[in-house]
Design a protein that fits this description.
The longest helix is centred in the middle third of the chain and has 33 residues. About 4% of the residues have low confidence. The radius of gyration is 18 Å and the shape is globular. Strands 1-4 form a two-stranded antiparallel sheet. A two-stranded antiparallel ribbon has the order 2-3. It has one domain: A middle domain of Talin 1 (Up-down Bundle). The chain starts with a helix and ends with a helix. By secondary structure, the chain is mainly alpha-helical. It comes from Haloferula helveola. Keywords: Membrane, Transmembrane, Transmembrane helix. Pfam families: Na_Ca_ex. Its main location: membrane.
Length: 315
């Protein structure tokens, strides 16, 4: 039991290290291709830090553990907004870019409300997974084009560019490859020993996926957004979370279902309602004053605490 707990903790560190390498390499490559910090946050950084969720859910789908695969997606999205943005906003209020107010936040809210419709028959089929992946690709292309079109209105400081783009192209490629390899190893370690803990404690795989696995795979997002908040890089901090949540609902859920139809029987209305609630709160919070302040961050953290209080007896 204690050995499994220790290995889960070690897997968190491995995932963090792998995501750090992947984000550094991917961000450097993106900046050199002329992308702004906002689109880097929404795409390269967001998708890079969400790679653990993708790998964990894919492995769970292959292993016939659908509750962990789906619970990981729903739990990560809850954790990303309520905890990561909550903590980041408490550290330093996060400014909201006009593109996020006009497009990205409303798109995330729409996807958060519509994607769970695939849960209605108790399974996300391969066809539904394929549709989600098509939507993911369409959003990514659209976000990059939109950001480039509006890029002239976004100022990028020399310090920010230097921070993100320091590695050269060769180093960036090595970091990306090494980061992916480390993430694959870390994801396998996390799922294997989290399931062992669940079985020994009699806790359902759905609860483990919604809490321990979700929090573990969200550690890269937490580190990235908190560091960005400390550095005043609000575009990356906010874009990282919004992009990660879209990636989880479209790429991760879609990819898992494409690998193997995913049962959603372990996910309740409380879980989906909590995910919709924190996403629904985020949009007006961002519109009010065009920033996420300390009060709003505290409300998000309190909402997550209330969700844990309500769901934990399910174990």
């Amino acid at each position: 039991m204690w050995l499994h707990a220790l290995l889960v903790a070690v897997s968190f560190l491995i995932l963090f290290a792998g995501a750090e390498m992947l984000v550094r390499g991917g961000s450097a490559l993106a900046i050199r291709l002329g992308l702004t910090p906002l689109v880097v946050g929404l795409t390269v950084v967001a998708y890079g830090t969400s790679t653990p969720e993708l790998l964990v859910s894919l492995k769970s789908a292959f292993a016939g553990q659908p509750d962990i695969a789906v619970g990981n997606v729903v739990g990560s999205n809850l954790f990303n907004i309520a905890v990561i943005l909550g903590i980041s906003a408490v550290i330093l209020p996060i400014r909201s870019h006009l593109q996020i107010l006009r497009w990205d936040a409303p798109v995330l809210l729409a996807v958060t409300l519509l994607a769970p419709l695939t849960f209605l028959d108790g399974v996300v089929t391969r066809t539904e997974g394929g549709v989600l992946l098509i939507l993911a690709a369409a959003y990514t292309i659209w976000a990059i084009r939109l950001a480039r079109r509006e890029g002239s209105n976004v100022e990028v400081s020399d310090d920010d560019a230097a921070t993100v783009a320091k590695p050269g192209l060769a180093v960036a490629a090595v970091l990306i490859a090494a980061g992916l390899g480390v993430l694959v190893f870390g994801s396998r370690l996390l799922v294997t020993h989290a399931v062992e803990i669940a079985q020994s404690l009699g806790v359902s795989e759905a609860v483990i996926g919604l809490t321990i696995v979700a929090a573990g795979t969200s550690m890269p997002e937490l580190a990235t957004s908190v560091v960005a908040a400390f550095r005043g890089q609000s575009d990356i901090a906010l874009g990282n979370v919004l992009g990660s949540n879209l990636f989880n609902l479209l790429f991760v859920l879609g990819g898992s279902a494409l690998v193997h139809p995913v049962s959603t029987s372990g996910i309740t209305l409380l879980d989906l309602g909590a995910m919709a609630l924190v996403t629904g709160l985020l949009v007006p919070f961002l519109i009010t004053g065009k920033r996420l302040g300390r009060l709003e961050g505290t409300i998000l953290l309190a909402t997550f605490a209330a969700y844990l209080f309500l769901m934990w007896p399910r174990g």
